[in-house]
Amino acid sequence: MKKIFYLSRHLLILVLGFFCSNTFAVDTAPVSGVAVVYPSKEPIANAVITILETGTKLVTDTQGKFGPIYWPVGQNITMVLEKKGFRTTQTATVTVPPEGLTDLHHNITFQVPTDLTFYMLALITGAKLDENFCHVAATITAKGKTIYDAPQGEDNSTVLLTPGTTQTPFYFGIFPDGSTDPFVKGLTQTSLDGGLVYFNLQPMDQPYTMTAVKSGVAFTVAKFICRKGIFINLSPPQGPIVI
């Protein structure tokens, strides 16, 4: 009788252990990426990257690469890059899928302007920077294009933000060599560059959603967290991209 009771208790422990381990197990997926200079696309080495959700810190290697790290599937991840001489830059807020975010079409990218480039860009576009707000750049990306392609944009597209804003986007033109032309003013939709910028967006606790619109074309949707004084760049592939 004692032997039967012992076996039954042992079996119960095994069953409970199985269910507990499966209940509390968290699936993770790899996340990696790269940091490059805007607009030259040279790698940014030895930059400090902070994961906003946890405070975890990473450092880019000599090729500007970081990771992989392993992140809970279905959870959001937002990264912020800092390096002296460069504008502190935040990524989109991305939900990590089961397959992870590791290749050029699905990774985390930083396209980071120097401090001088950022302020010159604001001057050229006529923006009056207010550091009580956030500033957001994005690339509406053509299908199959990556951060290293030029041009990389889907032209004749417009963007919408949710919640709405009274600010209007500045759409970039494109030079014949495929590089960004910030000198053309008055565009109401993307050029083949695909680039745009919003200056002075109202900070919010909840993410903004950026949606691209073009007749007959479907896009992914981008989300970002607007924090006071922060510059966000939804660089490929984390901005709206043609599906």
Overview of the molecule:
With 243 residues, the protein is α+β, with helices and mostly antiparallel strands. It is built from 2 helices and 18 strands. The chain has a single domain, classed as Sandwich (Immunoglobulin-like). Residues 2-8 and 10-23 have low confidence and may be disordered.
Can I get a quick summary?
This protein is of the alpha+beta class. The protein has helices at residues 2-24, 115-125, and strands at residues 28-38, 48-51, 57-59, 65-72, 76-77, 79-82, 89-90, 94-95, 108-113, 134-139, 158-162, 170-171, 173-174, 180-181, 195-201, 208-213, 222-224, 231-234.
Number of distinct beta strands: 18
How is the largest sheet built, in terms of strand order? 3-2-6-7-18-10-15-12
User: Helix/strand/pairing class, anyone?
Assistant: alpha+beta
Give the amount of beta strand, in percent: 25-35%
Do you know the CATH architecture? Sandwich
**Overall spatial form:** globular
Instruction: Just give the CATH class.
Output: Mainly Beta
Poorly predicted ranges: 2-8, 10-23
Report, as a whole number of angstroms, the end-to-end distance.
66 Å
